[in-house]
C-alpha cells in the first residue's frame, strides 16, 4: 500500500508553550530521523482517525487473496477524499467517475461519500480485478451505487461522456495518461465539481526533470504527472491544490 504521511513544516523536536510566561520552548525526546518522526505521526493519525473499517479491511484481504498488488489509495488519503466529497454536499443523484478500480477500496470510499442516490462509474482494464471490485461493492452493500466498466480508461471515458456532466473524477491509474484524463475532465466535470488525482508527487520524484530518468516509462509517468499538476494549477477554470501527503493528492474544483 502507498502509505500516508503528513509533511512537517516546523522544527519537529520543539514544543512551544506560549501560555506560560513568555515563550517556553521544551525539547522532548523525539525519533531521530525524519522518517521515524513521520512514521510516528502516520501511526498516530491512523489510530486516531481510523480510516479503515471492517469493510475496507476485507477489501484489502480480498485483494491479497487474489494476488493483487497492494496499491490502493493511502488509508488517510482515502478518508480525506471521503470527507471532502461529503463536504462538497453533492446532491442526490450526484455522479462521479473513477479511473482505476483495483479491488474497490477507493470506490467504496467515494460511493459512501456520494450517499444514497449518488452513483460512481469506476473503470478497470483488468477483468479479473474488475470482478474482485464488483464483489467488494456487493459485500459493502453498494452494488446499486457503483458500475464497474471494463476497458481502457480513455475509451470508456469517451462512452461515459454522454451521461455527463459529472460531479467529480478520481484519477488513480496509469500516470502517463493523467493529462488525457484531464482533457476529458475539462470537458465533462460541471462547474463546482472536483478533479482528484492520486500519487501526484510521483513517488517523491515529481520535482525532477523527466529527462533525468533513464527508463522511458518513468520519464512518461513523471512528465504526465507534472503536466497534470501544472495544467490544473494554471487553468483559470479551476482552482487547484496538492495535499502534501506521502503520495501527494491533487484536488481541484471547477470554478467556471
Ligand atoms: C493504483 S490502482 C487503483 C487503486 C484504487 N483506486 C484504490 O485506491 O483502491 C490502478 C488500477 O488502474 C488500473 N489501470 C491502469 N491503467 C489503466 C487504464 N489505462 N485503463 C483502465 N484501468 C487501468 C490497474 O489495473 C489498477 O487496478
Automatic annotation (TrEMBL):
Pfam families: Methyltransf_3. Keywords: Methyltransferase, S-adenosyl-L-methionine, Transferase. The keyword Cell cycle does not apply. One of its GO terms (molecular function) is O-methyltransferase activity. It comes from the Eukaryota. One of its GO terms (biological process) is methylation. The keyword S-adenosyl-L-methionine applies. Belongs to the class I-like SAM-binding methyltransferase superfamily. Cation-dependent O-methyltransferase family. PANTHER family: CAFFEOYL-COA O-METHYLTRANSFERASE 3-RELATED, O-METHYLTRANSFERASE-RELATED. This is Catechol O-methyltransferase. It comes from Frankliniella fusca.
